[in-house]
Amino acid sequence: MNQKGAGPLLGIPALLAGTGLLAPLQAEVEETLKRLQSQKGVQGIIVVNTEGIPIKSTMDNPTTTQYANLMHNFILKARSTVREIDPQNDLTFLRIRSKKNEIMVAPDKDYFLIVIQNPTE
């Protein structure tokens, strides 16, 4: 269980297993997630692969799945829109703010980092 009582963190892909890189990489990822999670107002963090599958989360499974699916589609559309406006450009960060939440997304080549926070905290 993580510090907010949600489900366990989902595992890093088995792709790195046996390479000797798994333990240091996993420790670095865990430390980064803990640091982000400790920031004021952060409600959860999700790492999603390019297929929209959550591979790491500090939130419960139903919430993780909901955010991963919806944000994956939204990110792909936003990236496509940016490229359609200027084919030489790419989406580097996405921020959505509503009355209740702020969702920040840092897309990368292989993963999307999604952070959900309460902007009033």
UniProtKB/TrEMBL annotation:
Any one of the GO CC terms: microtubule
SMART domains in UniProt: Robl_LC7
Localization (cell): Cytoplasm, Cytoskeleton
Signal peptide, first to last residue: 1-27
Keywords tagged on the record: Cytoplasm, Cytoskeleton, Dynein, Microtubule, Motor protein, Signal, Transport
Location of the Roadblock/LAMTOR2 domain: 29-117
Domain of life of the native organism: Eukaryota
InterPro entries: Roadblock/LAMTOR2_dom (IPR004942)
PANTHER family noted in UniProt: DYNEIN LIGHT CHAIN ROADBLOCK
Function summary: Acts as one of several non-catalytic accessory components of the cytoplasmic dynein 1 complex that are thought to be involved in linking dynein to cargos and to adapter proteins that regulate dynein function. Cytoplasmic dynein 1 acts as a motor for the intracellular retrograde motility of vesicles and organelles along microtubules.
Family the UniProt entry places it in: Belongs to the GAMAD family.
Protein's name according to its UniProt entry: Roadblock/LAMTOR2 domain-containing protein
Source organism of the structure: Cnephaeus nilssonii (Northern bat)
